Amino acid sequence: MTSSLIAMGVAIFAVVNLVLALAGLSLLFGAFESLFGKPRLTLLRPSKGGNMFAFGFKWNSSKEPAQLDHIKIRLFNPFGSPTQSEVCHKFESKRNSFALEADMGPGLIELLGAQGMDKAMVQVELSSSRDGVCFQFDMKGPKFKKLVMESSDSVENFIKKNKLDVVKVSKPPIDIPIRSFIADTVPGKGAQLAIATNPAFAAQFAGMGSGGGAAAPAAEAVANYAVLKVWIEPGCIVCNACEDIYKEVFEVTSETCLIRPGAPLDNGLKIQEAAEACPVEVIKYTKAS
Ligand code: SF4
Questions:
Q1: What residue's CA is closest to ligand 1, atom 3?
Q2: Is the dihedral of CA 239, 242, 247, 253 positive or negative?
């Protein structure tokens, strides 16, 4: 009787130890996280600013199978402007945890620059158009903006750290080439439209005033001016717009925008253009008198 009690005690002790050891190993290798962890969205640093949005998403695909292929970012901004907006991107479907960089279009810059962001809510949604599964993450506007602007981990690091699939940078679904109003001449067909806006007939219409009927009135020339000082106020969302317009003056880093040392200040019109293009209006300048 006594020996069977001892044997039972030893067996219970062994089972408890085994369970504890397994739990420890599970924790050690992240299996606990993958089995019992909640779906987790991590905002990452895109390789370039502007429209790009980088994120990593981990979920237990064996517990909640899905083929995720859409990301949407929604702004609920009842006290600001715009009061609502949404940007969406479709990507190659993913069956397991993944990370990617998506081109959300210019709407992302407008969303980040919305007025009244401090009282807004942002929802990031990952969904599947095939099986209807959808994961939603809500956060306050300032937190979303901070995560977008201050995230330091790259997609590549996230993939390496979490042993995920190889990174894929997705392109915008439709790439519309920029074409002029006048189409290229079809090879072998000589006919062209003889109008003032066709460059082939520019010489023919040169010098014709508005009385000529076909030529458009010349735009009134705006005098250029020099700038005394140009600076960036806090709030830059590193969209790159200013650098794209005037790279000799503006340098966009991963965190903010800087004025290059010794930047030329004699082209006020170009600086003005960059300031007007800034979605969060943080470029300020004073005209030289
Ligand atoms: S200063 Fe304005 S335009 Fe330039 S990167 Fe920052 S937000 Fe964009």
A1: 278
A2: negative
